[in-house]
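B., you asked whether I could sanity-check this one before it goes into the benchmark set. Here's the sequence:
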Amino acid sequence: MNLFSSITEESFSYLVNDFGFSEPVATDGSWKTTFLYVNDQIGIEIELNYRDMDTFIFMKKLKNEELILDDESEADRKQLEDIINIEPIKSNGNNTTIQQFEKGILNKAALLQHNLGQILNKREKVFS
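And here's what the prediction gave me:
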């Protein structure tokens, strides 16, 4: 596990500890690592994008308490900032320092934690 993965799992541990999500399933790709957390209402995907040196959070729709995995249409997968109606903060791409990338992970974790209760309460409206 790399440093960024460790920071991510620690920063988002509240999903498991406070909100009852599953332990994350990590998947490594060529330019990203994703962490998928699931509860009985929604899936949350945390993407560490190493090309953009940025962190993205997506809410994923469940059907019969299982993730919808086919095609992942826009109706079934939404970015956190779109859901809470704020402008995404962009990284500086490959000019982003390691410290800025780490801080970005922490900031996204705090943003999700601050808004998660509201998102879970309006889950049906998120994907309508």
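One thing to flag: Residues 98-121 form the longest helix (24 residues). Otherwise nothing jumped out at me.
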